[in-house]
């Protein structure tokens, strides 16, 4: 259907369309009519001189102020990908649908796909040949009951293969990952210095908060620079045996970021998608030994022990086949871990634990020691069951703190000390009794309303935890905010639900397998 | 998460983003930062003064030439929907996801949905509260095995309820529909004048070609104006008892067009989606009696008799529950119907049949009479089995031609006579024997390459049909084109596959139930 030879002048259009490439064509451009293009159609834009090509969705421009009739516009990302200059000559053609869409249709029809199908789908995704609509179709076809665990392995392998891979040149590269959903819970910032102080390599990269009040990268950023390039990352890890960096710089498993950009707005988060997302990133980051933390609780991501066990088996199946040494721990996720929720407040908790401050939150300390202990036992020289004691020793002798300071120094200390927001509100117990429930979701919501993670000092500080006895009017937690409008929103939110439930009797303890 | 009160100046951005609303915000706009908006996020744009609101996907603009920092841009359709003027004050907020997405997630998880679920989903779709990604998720979850036929009924009802509905004020309003896929096959242009000449009301609206070389509206347009507004349509139908118009003007079952804008690029065409799309449009158009034509053949849309029967039952189930008098006929779709493929060539065939020209294609004549006969039997005064004879009588006495001329006159005769493309190429038999196969898909492809349906005179003219005896070198068909580049593409395409297969023996006749 193409008439070759109609050349247009390339123009960068200053519009950021995120992960979707958009091409802009003027309505009066002759090509628009003779070729029968339609808005939203997929087109390929080719360099006239060489083989550079980019795929994009077409938008039709009616306004000569945006672009001229003889121009072909590209959104920011598409322009970068094509790699040409403003004014270079290009031509435009109907894009043939990616061949791998055939496999997607087989998946929609309920078939199992082969490893080669997943590889070709993911290659096309990374090559920007899929529209968001098409990715949505693929993800929904793969979600829930749609995928055999063997297929999950193929998908994960394809996601690793289509990106870069870090190589640390050592046989044991440790990593940890929590599936998330529990406010506070900054165990990574304690596990890394403990494990690195032991001498085990743990080059930890973390994400920023997406829907939570703080990610490890946000909290660490109150203490040190986290936006490291790959060279700095390597240097620091070689010197200190560990780091606590933001992972956004490396192009590891790029398919994951693209698929997440569709999964998130759709709220698609099937167990399979979680497993392939986490494991592909970890394998690409060069991890050989991995500890996965699955918190379970009524307001956690995973709510029933059965679901946690099923998820654990999925992680184990795929992890083993990928050649990872993978362990999964199921932990108590019935309430926030630590006291602070929000970057600066969480950093304060971490520092208190490292300083062996008797006032440090004991749940954060204990969980971190247990997790660090399990990782230390990846070391063949550590006897099974001894990891916890070693971790505790590293913490209590101050070696963990010293290592944390070294890592902070190496990454670049944040000279501006963190401050809690100046606006404070006390939330008190409406009646006397015992704290029988703290809602993770509601506490996270209140902290976000207060401004976390963007305002580092904003968030929630818990003074009471589950099982504590309280008198009516006693303070349960404090809300900190930096801006009045945020503060008002957070306070408003507590009026709907304070996130705590008070009962006449202490809550029954839940049993969790020992770590 | 909203800070109310930051007002922006509305600006129409001259970009047509088709069925997806897009809002444009300058990267340096204060709202962009304080509110934590992300490109591709869904936002709601609200009038500051009243309750007008529109939902859109956010694009971020880096170029002050496109819009200013204190402005909020909307793409063409979104601007129209909001109904405000350039410069009016608006504010922008994170859109809450449509509540009906919850039902979509239940569908993805494999649940059956209730009538109220489908209604709320389709209301949100029509209200532009769904992104294309979300529609894709819904459609894939509903496709293939995903839907009970009861659910299909709910979906169809929801699509009817969320649009306008025509009322012809008569107890018998006939309509026909072919599921498509067979080139030529312009029976509608014969059925309508025959049925209308009998006095039965048949207000036929048709679509233009989407992926085929011509739709009924394209072919009719070579003879008469088809782009009628609703008032003209009513006047003409009241006077002539029938019409042959383009259906794009009325807002009937608008959800259908929106869903199709996602189904088409995804090549999603499950039987359920076909049934709900066709029946919702017909019920909204006020039809009470409907004949559905399902052609079956190795290169038709439906390839096996079993699939045709399954589809027929689906049509019957939903049609009966909607209160339609619905009949389904399964017809021979193993080759094109008539000789011409392309608007002007097909119109020529139709006129020849109406003129009772002995040279008229007999398959087109016969099929049209059979279909018209079945529709005439919707008339309680027509005895079962007599419809065909009545239809033949109407055709042979010239009353069908007279009615067609009256309809053309009423709609507005096209004064420019159609002309076949000036460029002609003969495609000849590579060997002697019998024509044992004509590939519908390949013939359609060649006709489209030649320029159909945009170039009215372009297309293919078949001189041989299945069963015909041919000598090597004898002409099988002619290709007509208006432009040299199209012509070259079409000729190139025949080199890959001429679309005909020649065998030593005539093809075995296939049995089809009599109409």
Structure description:
Chains A, B: It catalyses: thymidine + phosphate = 2-deoxy-alpha-D-ribose 1-phosphate + thymine. Chains A, B: GO terms for molecular function: 1,4-alpha-oligoglucan phosphorylase activity; thymidine phosphorylase activity. Chains A, B: One of its GO terms (biological process) is pyrimidine nucleobase metabolic process. The structure is a homodimer of 515-residue chains. The first copy, chain A, is α/β, with parallel strands linked by helices and 515 residues long. Chain A has four domains: 8-94, Barwin-like endoglucanases (Beta Barrel); 101-161, Up-down Bundle (Transferase, Pyrimidine Nucleoside Phosphorylase, Chain A, domain 3); 174-411, 3-Layer(aba) Sandwich (Pyrimidine Nucleoside Phosphorylase, Chain A, domain 2), CATH 3.40.1030.10; 423-503, Pyrimidine nucleoside phosphorylase-like, C-terminal domain (Aldehyde Oxidoreductase, domain 3). Helix content of chain A is 39%, strand content 19%. In chain A, the strands form five sheets. The first copy, chain A, has a six-stranded mixed beta barrel. Chain A has a four-stranded antiparallel beta sheet with strand order 13-16-18-14. The longest helix of chain A is centred in the middle third of the chain and has 17 residues, at 305-321. The first copy, chain A, is globular and about 75 Å long. Chains A and B meet through strand 2, strand 5, helix 3, helix 5 and helix 10 of A and strand 2, strand 5, helix 3, helix 5 and helix 10 of B. Strand 2 of chain A pairs antiparallel with strand 5 (53-61) of chain B, so a sheet runs across the interface.
């Amino acid at each position: 259907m193409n008439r070759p030879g109609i050349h247009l002048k390339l123009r960068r259009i200053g519009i950021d369309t995120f992960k979707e490439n958009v091409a802009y064509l003027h309505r009066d451009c002759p090509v628009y009519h003779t070729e029968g293009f339609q808005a939203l159609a997929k087109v390929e834009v080719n360099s006239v001189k060489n083989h550079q090509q980019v795929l994009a969705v077409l938008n039709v421009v009616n306004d000569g102020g945006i672009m001229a009739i003889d121009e072909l516009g590209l959104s920011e990302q598409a322009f970068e990908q094509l790699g040409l200059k403003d004014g270079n000559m290009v031509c435009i053609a109907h894009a043939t649908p990616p061949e791998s869409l055939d496999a997607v249709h087989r998946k929609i029809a309920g078939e199992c796909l082969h490893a080669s199908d997943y590889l070709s789908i993911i290659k096309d995704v990374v090559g920007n040949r899929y529209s968001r609509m098409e990715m949505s179709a693929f993800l929904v076809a793969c979600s829930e009951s749609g995928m055999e665990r063997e297929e999950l392995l193929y998908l994960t392998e394809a996601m690793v293969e289509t990106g870069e891979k870090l190589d640390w040149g050592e046989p044991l590269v440790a990593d940890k990952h929590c599936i998330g959903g529990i406010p506070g819970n900054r165990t990574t910032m304690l596990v890394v210095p403990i494990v690195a102080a032991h001498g085990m390599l743990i080059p930890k990269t973390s994400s920023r908060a997406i829907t939570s009040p703080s990610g490890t990268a946000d909290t660490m950023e109150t203490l040190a620079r986290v936006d490291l390039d790959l060279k700095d990352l390597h240097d620091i890890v070689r010197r200190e045996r560990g780091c606590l960096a933001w992972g956004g710089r490396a192009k590891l498993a790029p398919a994951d970021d693209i698929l997440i950009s569709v999964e998130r707005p759709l709220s698609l988060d099937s167990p399979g998608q979680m497993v392939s997302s986490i494991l592909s990133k970890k394998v690409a980051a060069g991890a050989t030994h991995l500890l996965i933390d699955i918190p379970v609780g009524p307001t956690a991501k995973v709510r029933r022990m059965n679901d946690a066990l099923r998820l654990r088996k999925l992680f184990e199946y795929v992890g083993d086949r990928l050649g990872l040494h993978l362990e999964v721990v199921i932990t108590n996720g019935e309430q926030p871990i630590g006291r602070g929720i929000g970057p600066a407040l969480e950093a304060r908790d971490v520092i208190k634990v490292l300083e062996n401050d008797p006032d440090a939150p004991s749940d954060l300390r204990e969980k971190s020691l247990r997790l660090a202990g399990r990782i230390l036992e990846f070391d063949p020289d550590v006897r099974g069951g001894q990891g916890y004691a070693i971790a505790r020793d590293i913490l209590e002798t101050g070696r963990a703190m010293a290592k944390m300071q070294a890592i902070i120094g190496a990454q670049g200390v944040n000279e501006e000390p963190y401050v809690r927001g100046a606006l404070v509100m006390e939330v008190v117990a409406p009646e006397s009794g015992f704290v029988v429930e703290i809602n993770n979701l509601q506490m996270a919501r209140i902290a976000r309303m207060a401004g976390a993670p963007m305002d580092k000092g904003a968030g929630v500080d818990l003074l009471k935890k589950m099982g504590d006895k309280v008198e009516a009017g006693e303070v349960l937690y404090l809300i900190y905010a930096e801006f009045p409008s945020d503060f008002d929103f957070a306070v408003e939110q507590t009026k709907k639900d304070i996130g705590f439930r008070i009962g006449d009797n202490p809550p029954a303890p839940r049993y969790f397998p020992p770590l």
